[in-house]
């Protein structure tokens, strides 16, 4: 399988809030940094709001305490990373950022400033109504980030203990759904690069409402046109809703990761993302790498 030209991350951003889920994201980000030889930036955003209408003397005192807290926060962040990663923290190039602005704003700003090639962040796996929501921070980053976003959940059948420094996530089976679009081609290139670097198996899936006799041939030809050698790729054809079939196929294959393209279409001053990629990111029971493609 030839290495894809479109995905060689050199700057990885991992925002953490020191929760078990963000610690898990940190483990994935650390593995990615090692595999690709990338620099890892760990970001902690804590919005500090102090009372208004203070006297000048009290305002100056609060600002001095805030500056001291910022300095301490960076040391605490580095200490937390060392605790989560153990000896691995000393073997990686890690930068630390602590900011006191809104978390989503901090992440998007850091993506631009360090020119991040990948964002790795945790997202909650809620049930019921809350499962429909990724969380406001993750939603905003997925909609606005120009870099691919790797959202982390615990796999139900393969628990990784964030409290154990030697616990290391592995990616051995990757699923890449496609709809023959430019966004899907970008995701496929990314999935191929990951599969090669991770020594993982790659399955490419296409789902349509009505099955067609030439479906298998069309899928193989599309993969070839995307510049990928398809001899090492397992192809899957499904019938039904693309998002639902992707989630089911990932579970049946025991996938460790879904790589999906997300088409960003201009809308007002921003963009809207593809419905299928959004639903997969919300409902999948495994980590999802969302690769953005911006329509001209």
Contiguous uncertain segments of 5+ residues: 1-5, 125-133
Number of helices: 8
- Average residue-wise pLDDT: 85
Shape: elongated
> How many runs of DSSP E, i.e. beta strands?
11
Strand content: 15-25%
What series of H and E elements makes up the topology? EHEHEHEHEEHEHEHEEHE
Distance between the termini: 30 Å
CATH topology label of the largest domain: Rossmann fold
Annotated CATH architecture of the largest domain: 3-Layer(aba) Sandwich
Q: What structural class do you assign from the helix and strand content?
A: alpha/beta
Radius of gyration: 20 Å
Amount of helix: 25-40%
Q: What number of structural domains do the residues give? A: 2
Question: Largest beta sheet, briefly?
Answer: 11 strands, mixed
Within CATH, the superfamily of the largest domain carries the name HUPs
* Oligomeric state of this protein: single chain
* CATH level 1 class label of the largest domain: Alpha Beta
What report would you give on this structure?
By secondary structure, this protein is an alpha/beta fold. The protein has two domains: 1-159, HUPs (Rossmann fold), CATH 3.40.50.620; 170-296, Rossmann fold. Helix content is 40%, strand content 23%. It is built from eight helices and eleven strands. Strands 1, 2, 3, 4, 5, 6, 7, 8, 9, 10 and 11 form an eleven-stranded mixed beta sheet that branches. Helix 4 (136-144) links the parallel strand 4 (118-122) and strand 5 (149-152). Helix 3 runs parallel beside helix 4 (136-144) and helix 7 (242-253) packs parallel to helix 8. The protein is elongated, with a radius of gyration of 20 Å. The protein starts with 10 loop residues before the first strand and ends with a strand.
């Amino acid at each position: 399988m030839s290495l894809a030209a479109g995905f060689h991350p050199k700057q990885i951003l991992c925002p953490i809030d020191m929760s078990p889920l963000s610690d898990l994201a940190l483990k994935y980000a650390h593995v990615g940094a090692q595999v690709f030889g990338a620099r890892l930036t760990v970001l902690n955003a804590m919005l500090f709001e102090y009372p208004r209408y203070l006297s000048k003397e009290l305002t100056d005192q609060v600002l001095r305490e805030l500056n001291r807290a910022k300095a301490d926060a960076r040391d605490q962040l580095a200490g937390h990373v060392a605790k989560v990663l153990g000896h691995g923290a000393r073997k990686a190039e890690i930068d630390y950022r602590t900011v006191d602005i809104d978390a989503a704003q901090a992440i998007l700003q850091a993506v631009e400033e360090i020119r991040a090639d990948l964002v790795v962040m945790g997202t909650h796996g809620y049930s019921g109504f809350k499962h429909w929501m990724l969380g406001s921070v993750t939603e905003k980053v997925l909609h606005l980030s120009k870099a691919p976003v790797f959202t982390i959940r615990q796999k139900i059948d393969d628990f990784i203990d964030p409290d154990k420094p030697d616990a290391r996530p592995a990616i051995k089976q990757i699923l890449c759904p496609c709809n023959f679009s430019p966004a899907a081609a970008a995701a496929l290139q990314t999935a191929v690069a990951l599969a090669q670097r991770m020594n993982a198996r790659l399955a490419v899936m296409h789902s349509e409402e009505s099955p067609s006799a030439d479906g298998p041939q069309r899928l193989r030809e599309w993969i070839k046109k995307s510049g990928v050698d398809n001899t090492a790729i397992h192809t899957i054809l499904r019938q039904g809703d693309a998002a639902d079939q992707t989630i089911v196929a990932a579970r049946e294959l025991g996938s460790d990761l879904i790589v999906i393209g997300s088409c960003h279409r201009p809308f007002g001053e921003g963009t809207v993302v593809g419905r299928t990629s959004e639903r997969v990111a919300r409902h999948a029971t495994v980590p999802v790498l969302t690769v953005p493609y911006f329509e001209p």
